[in-house]
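Still learning. Show one?

>
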Amino acid sequence: MSRPEPALAQGWCALSALHGRIETHVERALQAAHELSVREFSVLDVLSAQHDGEGGHFRMHELSEAVVLSQSATTRLVSRLEERGLLTRYLCATDRRGIYTDLTPAGLALLELARPVNDTALREALDTAGQRPEFAPLVAAVRATVPAGD
């Protein structure tokens, strides 16, 4: 039986491997410096972008989509962060079924401390991966998404 698109499958495998390598490197750095997982950092980062304007706050299902977790996994993660005093949950004023999550001052402070660690680890992981021929085009594509000056 022939494989119709082996290059597509190889590209997907390379992308998956690159993601795994980057996530592992960033996870180790965040855990060592701030006892944060990559997923916890992602939740804090996403929530830090909320605003008071129209559509400015994430409901739990929107948060789960933004951090690419199931709703139940997101709820467990938010609960752990809430227990640590980093997040708070509250009911939507216009729809009592909706639950929003927001950063506490402690959560925002930790995020600000963790961002440079995350950024440095991400750059290191990309630099290392970019030296491998199978990852170099993917690393270049990731870097091409960053606006000049960032």
Summary: DSSP finds six helices and two strands in the chain. The CA atoms of residues 89 and 101 lie 4 Å apart. The first helix runs from residue 6 to 34. The mean pLDDT is 91.
